[in-house]
Amino acid sequence: MTTGVIPRSTRLNRAKRRGVSGVMVALTYLAAALATLPLLFIVIHIVKLGAGAISVDLFTKMPQPVGEAGGGMANAISGTLILIGIAAAVGVPIGIGAGLYLAEHKRTPLANTVRFLSDVLNGIPSIVMGIFAWQLLVRPVGHFSALSGGVALGAMIIPLVTRTTEEMIRIVPNSLREAALALGYQRWRTSLSVILRTAMPGIVTGALVAIARIAGETAPLLFTAFGNQFWSTSLRQPIAALPLQIFTYAISPYDEWHSLAWAGALVLIGIVLIISIAARFATRSRFGAAVD
Amino acid sequence: MDGIERIRGMSGAERETTARVSIVGSDLGDRVYSVMTTAFAVCIPLLLIAIAIEIGRAAWPALHQFGFGFLTSSEWDVPAGKYGAAPAIFGTIVSSFIALLIATPLALGVAIFLSEFAPRWLQQPVAFLVDLLAAIPSVVYGLWGIFVMIPLLREDVVPFLRDTLHLGATPFFAGPAYGPSMLAAGIILAIMALPYISAVSREVLRAVPRSQREAALALGATRWEVIRDAVIPNARSGIIGGVILGLGRALGETMAVTMVIGNRAEISSSLLAPGYTMASLIANEFSEATSDMHLSALMAVGAVLFVITIIVNAIARWLVWSVSVRNEA
């Protein structure tokens, strides 16, 4: 198309359209820059304000009352790890089991219902999960407990584990299943020792991603785990948790607690990051080789 | 291995029968396995039903006593035993609306950038950074909101909006600006909803077939016209679904909002005034509720939140799903 044959007005029009296009493309660049800005902003502040308050004491000492120097968050850090453990023990087996069912019954009415409802479950606010766990496990007993907090968090990871399990099993080649069945394996053995094992690294990744997501949850713990200034010795008693501690310190009027809150935030993000990196590692190391 | 040994000793016809028997799964092991996985799958609907029943049961006394007025009354007076959820419902809707107003254009811009314009080397890092926003715990957003964002709003942003843009005359920016406010909650919710909206939009934009873009380019469309006329119309319902999904997140978000919204049960037209959301109301008062009716009222707020988020999420999923089905066919 030579410019010579195009009437002047059209050429002008084209220049205008090109101009609009250029501006819009530039705006999408701007949007990308603006969207990454808050992250950099937040991370810089957490590192700047948190790093100063990080010390060995933070990981080994108990919280101190206001006015007394030092003190740490040892009980909150261990409490968070315990809560994550309970959540994983509750949520991962149910999630994997339901995922197996979905992968093997692709389009039955029950499978469609379960698939849809697990998406719905995934969208339920964590605070609603919290009052549910309170009503179910705290109210009848009469006191807050680590167990109720762990169950609330565990229920929240079920839908994510279910869906990733289903996805991971679906990308296992069908020939593998056929081969196992042709060798005379029963269906359940094929599923568990051939299909599930092949998909396992992907499922582990999915479970870790789900756990990373609930590791920083606070709302459901407000009235289940409730927090604790001491070492937690029983799962039936209230337990300290890092996010709860950050919340308490953040809304307090004391400067030394504020700086502990920043340090706690840095540690919490560190825990989430470590779990996320572990999730990437789990897929990268074995999955590629297994599917080929 | 026993399976292989057994099959080796069989004739062709026998092998076929064995294979068929395994597939049909008449063995005890298969039956147990089938029952087990079904039981796990049924856990999910059961859990939802249990949530609905338990919360409904606990909310019943309040809903029964206050009836429909529970949703419309704006009097939340604990000592007087009066509970109206209107300020919290109002705050939830307004803060989420502000969040979507800010987050939607940004998230859509990022999604278009990533799926259409970004140079290859930029795609992964930008997508990763935006996704990371979803990994930061809510309580950390709240901490940042209290100590960094609110002072920034109070000292720089609000004076700029009022004095430079002259928005102080509108009812939205009237009154004293303490800091904790509806506006602060809306902004922090925007940051938190952004990664969800952009992730879904990115996916539905990618699902639009290449041929759509090529056809538009062949007709002489500019790069932007391709997006506007050929790509977005195809992905529209999916993008709307993504925005509604972001709305679902914003409606139920608790900690960050509780820490920056100011927690006052009043309806004000000013965005600079403190407010309340349903989630922050529950978070604030639940563990201090002493009377049965107070507790039941909070449960009723939870029930309203539960129902709203279920409806919103169901609509969002359905829209996103409709795009993937259309483009598969």
Succession of helices and strands of chain A = HHHHHHHHHH
First-residue to last-residue Cα separation of chain B:
43 Å
Question: In percent terms, what proportion of residues of chain B is strand?
Answer: under 5%
Biggest sheet record of chain A: none
Helical content class of chain B: over 70%
The count of helical stretches of chain B stands at 13
Strand content of chain A: under 5%
Task: List key phrases describing it.
heterodimer; A: 292 residues; mainly alpha; 10 helices; globular; disordered C terminus; B: 329 residues; two-stranded antiparallel sheet; 13 helices; 2 strands; 1% strand
Topology:
The complex is a heterodimer of chains A (292) and B (329).
Chain A: H1 8-51, H2 56-60, H3 74-104, H4 109-122, H5 126-138, H6 146-170, H7 174-182, H8 187-215, H9 242-250, H10 255-291
Helix pairs in contact in A: 1-10, 3-6, 3-8, 3-9, 4-6, 5-6, 6-8, 7-8, 8-10, 9-10
Chain B: H1 2-8, H2 12-24, H3 28-66, H4 69-72, E1 76-77, E2 82-83, H5 86-117, H6 120-132, H7 138-164, H8 182-207, H9 210-218, H10 223-252, H11 255-260, H12 278-285, H13 292-328
Antiparallel strand pairs in B: 1-2
What's the gist of this structure?
Chain A has helices at residues 8-51, 56-60, 74-104, 109-122, 126-138, 146-170, 174-182, 187-215, 242-250, 255-291. Chain A is globular and about 65 Å long. Chain A has 292 residues and is mostly helical.
Descriptive notes:
With 292 residues, chain A is mainly alpha-helical. Chain A is globular. Chain A contains ten helices and no strands. Helices cover 74% and strands 0% of the residues of chain A. By secondary structure, chain B is mainly alpha-helical. Chain B contains 13 helices and two strands; from the N terminus they run ααααββααααααααα. Chain B has helices at 2-8, 12-24, 28-66, 69-72, 86-117, 120-132, 138-164, 182-207, 210-218, 223-252, 255-260, 278-285, 292-328, and strands at residues 76-77, 82-83. Chain B has a two-stranded antiparallel ribbon. In chain B, α3 crosses α13. The two termini of chain B are 43 Å apart. At the A-B interface, α1, α3, α4, α5 and α6 of A face α1, α2, α3, α5 and α6 of B.
